[in-house]
Amino acid sequence: MNTVADCLRRHYRVVVFAVYLAVVIVTMAFHEPWFDEAQSWLIARDCPYRDLLLVRPHYEGHPPLWWLLLSIPAKLGVPYEWGLKGVELVCSALMCGLLVFRAPLPRLAVALLPFTYFLCYQYGVTSRPYALMCCALFVIAACWKSRDEHPWRLTAAFVLLCCTSSYGIALACAFALVWMVRAIRGATGRPAVRDGLFGNPARFAAWMVLLAVGLVLTACVLPRSDTFGAVQDPGGNPPIAQFALFWTVLPAESMFTAFAGDVSLHGLHMGVLAIALCVALSLAIWSVLARVALRRKNLDLLLVTYVLLSLCATKYFSMHHIGIIFALFVVQLWINVQDKALGIADIPLPTPLSRSLCAACATHAVRVAHIARIAIVVALLPSLVWTAAAIACDIRYDYSAGRALATFVRNNNLEHDRWVSFWRYLPDTTWPDGTHTNRMEDTHRYSWPAIAANPYFARNLLDCTYEGRTFVPNQVPSRAQMNREIASCAAKGAPEFLIGDTDFPQYFFHRLGLKRGDYRQIVVASQHVPWKTWVTSSDIAVYVRSDVYRTLPHA
Hints:
The protein is an alpha/beta fold.
């Protein structure tokens, strides 16, 4: 028994990595890909490479690397879920492997961090480019100390970070800016390294390459005037409020609290007590991080990276992105621990109290180790609970209705019938706080369940989409263009199926020249979407033309 325990202690990193892969693979097997995952696959499968590189980034807000990776299995005809989850599993394994085998953090932290909510579930199970982004951040942390001796290693990690996300471009810029300023100021701290802007030719060349990559990718992702994400709904948080929330609320939400759902930062609304608790917890997080960084002369790295990320976030940021904040905090600790191991003096206390605590702990090393373990568990426990709750929900219920809807279509041989999606429509609304939302309409925003079902078919399930596209184009049409598209769709006659979540079905029937009484509504699937310990449940309904309804087996 002791031999087994000793083996586990010696090889705990391998055990942690194996358990992480097992958890992710099992959860992936049950996980039904949702709209975001389907959208990327459809873009990768159905767009020519010219559009992937030059057009889609302007409307999706991130560089094309993720689509290029997905395009390998997608264009080769690999089945949807196998191809999508296969690429994600490779990225998740790299992310976890870097953290487990390279992070110089305490053993317990290394064992628990891979199973936190964002690294395990949001970025490990669901297929999006954020696992690859975390990989780049962890490589940066591992290469930061030797940046001047081996500048191309770090630059390669910066380039990867830029290619994963627009947030990655901002973070790479911030890290590089700190690196360059330190070199110019002669703050490398290494006698063997020449300081100054031109002191190290290889380093200067690496900076120039990074600058060129950053500028090209920034131009690649700049939103066009008709980009959906660039036009924010009125009545939301102004940029200055979003910037303040990014510092005072989101740190707590990334680690401890679950007050905000997966909403945009622009539309985030919380109660006074919730904000007060988040501010207090965020202040505690900042106190620890600032203390640790200040003692190692890395405060500039902590602040500059977060400032640039927060400025970028005021353009567009959703709560599922706060895992980037969590990963960035891990990277900050990683870099600082490489300079000096964590100790009692890193606790943010007044100097006299800190000295007394250090003196008291000097003779009680075992007790201090126990306190450190308790602190790690307390810091990570909320996120671990979120992971367990989300995985349990995903295994038990359908995360997305896409797979169930596709099964319904296939089982009833409905692929060649006309399916038309309701579009995005919000009527004039006055909210309780007095803000007003003008009517908004966008015929290019299709039903998410329909898009989630589309990858299961070789042809577009939906009729009347913009230019016949299988995905949401994120291009906001003009009023005249919307009217033309609606008139063209109505001219085709009554479709067999209509799909879309809406509180105003009569509006859409009227716009398409249809009669509500000619259709029967049926529920084809239910979905239960976990967010931390929250679960949002909904039924997916389809309007079936009455003559078709009578031919369905259930009728």
